[in-house]
Amino acid sequence: MSNNVLLEIKGLQKSFPGIKVLDDINIDFKKGNVHAVIGENGAGKSTLMNILFGYLQAEGGKLFWNGKDVKIHSPIEAQKMGISMIHQENSLIPFLSVMDNIYLGHYPRKAGFIKKQELQKKVEGLLKELDISDIEPSTIVEKLSVAQKQLIEIVKALSINPKLIMMDEPTAALTTKETSTLMGIINKLRDNDVSIIYVSHRLEEVFEISDEISVLRDGLLVVTKDTEDITINEAVAFMVGRDLGDQMQKMQSSHDIGVNGEEILRVENFNLSGKFEDINFDVKKGEILGFGGLVGAGRTELMEAIFGFMPQESGKVFIKGKEVKIKSPLVAVKQGIAMVPEERKVKGVFGDLDVADNINIVSLKKFTKAALINKKKEVEAAEKYIELLNIMTTSRKKLIYKLSGGNQQKTILARWLQTEPEILILDEPTHGIDVGAKAEIYKIIKELSDKGLAILLISSELPELLMLSDRIVVMQNGKINGIIDADEFSQKNIMMYATGQKKANQI
Question: What is the SS3 assignment for 36-97?
Fold first, then answer.
């Protein structure tokens, strides 16, 4: 083994009942290197990370740390070795402060007492290093946005001065600006000889930041290459075992139904103090209206107000020209509106229920007569949507938490499609989903719009917005800063509006 290798994985094996999730994995992670590990959901990436961080134990193979054979029995052992992990799912304790979450388990102490001033100073330094100016160390974590919580996960990982940081989808909840800040931090860490294992479905990021790439598929290591020796298209082909290029190219050809159709929804002078103000837009039958902007722009809050999660203070909503008062999600559903939320695990999935129950839970009245549920109709409805959306499950009775992220998302989408909406709100619909599942979700979205469904699409992934949308509304600080038509689509125009400037082709 080379002196430049920090961690060597040799012949790693791991199985769950009936499934081999890792089979004879051999990878070297070098010092001061950014090594990306990519693959579809279910490829074994998270299992590999969990073994290296001590959450899981391998059944075969060896780990060598600086040339020494080691066993990592727990996250505490991993941290003592100098391994840190940024989790894909938020692992923060909501009722504790930012600084307590960051230093929990390794507080600066003197005579057994926590040194509060030193703790605050350390956290302020880490926040400054990451250019995070809108979070105070004393803030309670449950008050933070999804993106802010993700930034705190990153700060927490840096707090132990690690030699190796594993990043599992670190930018899934971040905007372009925050992602750029993270890339700068990664470059600094690499310059300081810190090793990074980078797991992400965002292949543009992977190719921008990594030195090496390993591709996993179905628990097998398909290939490891220097990043400069592989293209994105080749990487995708290795990941999925098929070429998605033609399908993705078809997605980019816009359809003509959208902007010329009948107006379905109009929002006028919509306001909610501290969230958004003076919002005006309309969406037509069959149109995909994209919503871009940085975190904190107010996009999610706006959609939640339209769906009745929170009341707007003033303004009007019109559906097919008729003013409606939406005071709750139940009223929204009755008015033909459905919403797939951003935080799938928190607001979307009923983890203790099976796939069928997750699909049917909003529409039980359809199958109920005289307080009795018609089980046959309920089963038929679930199986119809499992087939329609190609939800990959061995049974409709399988617990939803056992499905991949993409199939969980399709299950939630099926739930709302069963309400037969005319307006569908999608908030970050491909958050944390692999490239193959993304292509399937994109296909479903396009097909729904082609059938006349009006779709409001929030996405922080600019290529996704540009590929799917007919028009794009760009918000900044709770206001609409611009609406971009298809003939002026560009990432630069979106970012110009998102940062409070005029679009790129204006003087």
Answer: EEECCCCCCHHHHHHHHCCCCCCCEEEEEECCEEECCCCHHHHHHHCEEEECCCCCCCCCCE
Identical fold between 5-246 and 249-336+421-498 = yes
pLDDT tens digits, residue range 365-384?
A: 776 776 676 677 777 778 88
Q: For the chain, which residues make up each domain, given as ranges? A: 5-246, 249-336+421-498
- Closest C-alpha to 231, from 250, 251, 195, 206: 206
What CATH number does domain 5-246 carry, 3.90.1150.10, 3.40.109.10, 3.40.50.300, 3.20.20.140?
A: 3.40.50.300
Query: Is this prediction's pTM over 0.90?
Result: no
| CATH number at 249-336+421-498 | 3.40.50.300
Q: Report DSSP letters for 380-431, one per residue.
A: HHHHHHHHHTT---S-TTSBGGGS-HHHHHHHHHHHHHTT--SEEEEESTTT
399 contacts: CB under 8 Å, gap ≥ 6? 351, 352, 353, 354, 355
pLDDT digits (tens, 9 = 90+) for 270-305: 999 888 999 999 999 999 999 998 767 889 999 999
Q: CA 442 → CA 40, 242, 247, 264, distances in Å?
A: 16, 17, 10, 22
